[in-house]
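User: Quick sanity check before I run a bigger batch. Here is a single chain. Can you write out its predicted 3D structure?
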Amino acid sequence: MNTLSIDAAINKTCPWSGNPVSAEALTLYRGHVVGFCNTGCRDKFETATSLFDGLIEPSAARNP
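Assistant: Done. Predicted structure follows.
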């Protein structure tokens, strides 16, 4: 299992709360480590992006 590093995060503050990111609340998104202040904010991001990615990706394939 690969461990994500807070040093690799592209952001220093949580996009939801504005608080500093936590090493326990990192995720990988489109090849980049993104940080959040807590796992709840991280999970909210993962849910939101998976919904939008699911809508965007199929339409991009249909409309080259």
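Strands lie at 26-29, 32-35.

User: Great, the batch can go ahead then.
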